[in-house]
Design brief:
By secondary structure, the chain is of the alpha/beta class. It is built from two helices and 13 strands. 13% of the residues are buried.
Length: 201
């Protein structure tokens, strides 16, 4: 006989009256109108193995996020296989949330795969205030402190002199040291077929 585990219950997404303060009151056991709080975890190098995923499922995880915008498909395929094994082991179902690349313009940087198959940057960039940085659509150059190749071929058609461009890490607020605000000083290149299409900021 398995031990009974008590999970906290959250209020429903609707209210029985207009008293919004009721959201601060705990859900009673006698009320059948409730929805359990949902826990979703991103599957990465620190939680990819079956044991850790099983622990997360036992702790209440109901959704596993797989971020296809970063990392090779083989890594994510292994994550999904391990999740299947963890569900069988823990006897708990888990939804899969797949995050795909949207309309982001990304900086193309050199990476190397670690022993676990997860990509890592080999070097950090140091860009200082007042420095000139070139954002380019060229595919034959490597990223550096003063040159950032971007993934959108028509990027130079989107900007003009005087525009502000925000460059930041994924899922950050813009207040950390990895974020940049760049002012466009000049735009060179009229189409992706020109020898050196780029935006200089």
């Amino acid at each position: 006989m398995s031990d009974h585990k008590h999970f906290l219950r959250a209020k429903t997404h609707f209210f029985k009256d207009l008293d919004l303060s009721t959201v601060l009151v705990g859900e009673g056991h006698g009320d059948s109108n409730f929805t359990g709080t949902k826990i979703i975890a991103t599957v990465g190098p620190s939680c990819q193995d079956v044991e850790v995923l099983s622990t997360l499922l036992d702790a209440g995880m109901v959704g596993a996020r797989v971020d296809l915008t970063w990392g090779p498909l083989d890594f994510h395929r292994k994550s999904l296989d391990n999740l299947q094994s963890a569900m069988k082991k823990s006897r708990r179902l888990c939804a899969t949330v797949v995050d795909t690349l949207g309309r982001e313009v990304m900086v193309r940087r050199q990476v190397k795969l670690g022993d676990d198959g997860w990509p890592m940057h080999e070097e950090t960039f140091n860009i200082t205030s007042g420095q000139t940085v070139v954002l380019t659509t060229r595919k034959d150059v490597d990223a550096a402190n003063d040159l950032l190749p971007v993934t959108y071929d028509k990027f130079h058609t989107m900007v003009e002199k005087g525009d502000m461009i925000y460059v930041g890490r994924y899922l950050v607020c813009g207040a950390d040291v990895a974020s940049l605000y760049l002012e466009v000083k000049a735009v060179e290149g009229e189409s992706p077929s020109t020898p050196d299409p780029r935006s200089t900021v």
